[in-house]
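We close this part of the discussion by returning to an individual protein. Part of our work consisted of pairing the sequence of a single chain with a tokenised description of its backbone. The amino acid sequence and the backbone structure tokens for this protein are reproduced below.
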Amino acid sequence: MARKIIGVLALVGLFVGLNPALAAKPNYAPEFPDKDGTYEVPGHPNMKVRVFVHKPNPGKPGPVPTPTCSDAHENIDTVGTTGWHLPSTFTYTLNTSSVPSAVGGERLPEIASLSAGKWDSLSGKINLIQSSETTTINRARSDGKNIVSWGRTSGNALAVTYTWYYPSDGLVAESDIIMNSKFHWSWQACSNSSYDVQNIMTHEMGHWMGLDDELNSNFADDTMYGYGSTGEYKKDTLEQGDIDGFISIYNNL
């Protein structure tokens, strides 16, 4: 009898393992959609997660544009804020194995450091620390780690940033940046066929700081303008509107 029971249990286990509907959810599955919005966090009623999707510039079809390899300084309107702020020390981890070959995983630490430094240098109240360790995680999930990785996102998102935070006091608990691996990427190439990594990453890290997307064309030269273009690197340099938005958050802490 015992052998029969063991045999039945083994068959059930095999069936469950082969049936996707019954198998356990993979630990790399995304917990939230890569779609703009604010979502409840299951099991954490005092926490929410905000998802920002950075999309290509929706310009009208036409001739191939000249790469925007310039660094204009025009708009001074203050960038909006999200209602959260980073803790005084924020450590992030890189997935260097996910980086497209055209960029090179060995260059990601420098690129991320340059992007983070644009924001970190604005205030002595926050310290962005790049972990000496790396990760292989390539999807956003609430696991206590702040990651920067390439991975799959749906639709035409260039990158998606997920930020878990406490609405009661605005403190960030965790934030992940996922760059879309289906696009062509480069660094300092100024090519109309690829997106500059540092350009987009500096924008995404602005969401870490607590800055919102600005979709009005008045903000087209700002780092926090919500659309990206090929050959663009002007987001590498913060505009006064970006800086003023940052100051409005951290000078009041």
